[in-house]
Amino acid sequence: MRKYFGTDGIRKIANTELTPELSYKVAKAGAYVLSKHTDKAPLILIGKDTRLSGSLIESAMTAGFLSYGASVIHLGILPTPTVAYLTRELKADASVVISASHNSYEYNGIKFFSNKGMKLDDSIEEEIEEAMDSDEIQNLKATEDKIGVDKYLEDLKEKYIDFLLKNFEAKIKENTLQDFVVGIDTANGATYEIAEQIFKKLGIKYKIINNEPDGININKNCGSTHTEKISEFVKKNNLSLGIAYDGDGDRCLVVDENGKVLDGDIILAIFSKYLKDHGKLKKDTVVSTVMSNIGLKKYAKQNSLELLQTKVGDRYVLEEMLKNGYNLGGEQSGHIILLDYNPTGDGIQTSLMLICILLESKVKLSELYKDVKIYPQVLVNAKVDNSKKDLYKNDKEINESIEKLEKEFENNGRVLIRASGTENLIRVMIEGEDQEYILKKAKELAKLIENKLG
User: Fold this and answer.
1) What is the DSSP letter of 65?
2) What is the arithmetic mean of pLDDT over 165-173?
3) Fewest beta carbons less than 10 Å away: which of 25, 94, 294, 350?
4) CA separation for the pair 78, 168 (Å, rounded)
5) What is the mean pLDDT of residues 63-85?
6) What was the pLDDT predicted at 186?
7) Active site residues
């Protein structure tokens, strides 16, 4: 198991676990590894979300990059997919997003992106880890005129805004409805300004909440992890739909006109049918992860679609898409990859695609997914020490309990146990027909795991 990087970069409590010293070291090692693969001093972009600790980590990483001769462009507060897009657009060698996504403000994280705007390969992250722990890390330094320089170019977001306008403006304006109004919850995060600017330029009527970040209110009772806020807002204001972004803006969840939450599985179902009907779904295939609801699998089969499932993590969804030429994939959590536009999950892009489909169809959102039956699914977390996360596989009592549950639900549900790639948790997921019963069973198994390994 890797020491620093999880399935979505490095994520820890800022200034306690993710210290300036660690941030400096990962940047210095990153510049060293990237320079080996580019044969030159790399140019690296840095973006961040609205967390209080963002400037602290950015300063430490900047020092690390410059000390090995890399140059840095500071982009300011921008969503993760915007930074990924600008990496390609500016032909930078890599980029870093300083964010802990949906986590609360005391956490922060470091995500590296390649020159193609995609998360670094596992092998490159492993090289960075090796360099970080090497005795040679202290000797990796630029001298004299080889020391790197940095500059601030915080107006580059206009390039990304123009990119979205080019792809969605004509269709949205062609089908605009007078009474169509969208609710937006930016989670006091990275989309707090840019989302509103994009909706204004597209002429979409909107009402916005949780767009006043103060450094500590990111994701606090808002955004995609607390959809009850946007649900209440939509119902109270009689809106056409609601959109809830997460802290770094690479995903979104949606609520319909009745306030019902649509997760990534339902969004994938809507997108797959639309693209297939318009002859734009490559190989009639959707890529998701093993966490996707069994209802999506049944919907795909009913509509003559192929559903492929990868291990959890949008990077693995993208790998499968690139390897076999698919153009639609995503996660239940709301990471949706529309590869015809961008090779990353993108909350704003996802919401604009959904709005286009909704306006074109001229029906209420609840009508668009009426044929998708989502089965009750519960997810209970067992807290365990990070060093013990994989030990459940070797514990006889835990495995006997898992096998018993798998047998019980083999015909009317599903059981999935996995170690979190970003937190000290083992996740217990059960699908079935009775919400109360599967919750009871999931809690029992999670308690057993905690008692044995906690």
Assistant:
1) H
2) 96
3) 294
4) 20
5) 97
6) 98
7) 101
Do the first three CATH levels of 175-368 and 377-453 match, i.e. the same topology? no
Side by side, the strands of the sheet bearing 71-77 are: 10-13, 107-114, 94-98, 43-48, 71-77, 150-152
What ranges do the domains of the chain cover? 10-157, 175-368, 377-453
Amino acid letter, 153: L
Ramachandran sector of residue 329 (left: φ over 0; alpha: ψ -120 to 50; beta: rest): beta
Homologous superfamily of the 10-157 domain (CATH):
Alpha-D-Glucose-1,6-Bisphosphate, subunit A, domain 3 (3.40.120.10)
pLDDT digits (tens, 9 = 90+) for 80-123: 999 999 999 999 999 999 999 999 999 999 999 999 999 998 89
pLDDT at residue number 139: 87
Among 43, 36, 159, smallest CA distance to 91 is for 43
Q: Is the pLDDT of residue 454 over 80?
A: no
In one-letter notation, the amino acid at residue 85 is Y
Distance CA 208, CA 224 (A): 14
Q: Which CATH class is domain 377-453?
A: alpha beta
Q: Does domain 175-368 have CATH number 3.40.120.10?
A: yes
b/e per residue 282-296 (b: at least 16 CB within 10 A):
eeebbbbbebbbbbb
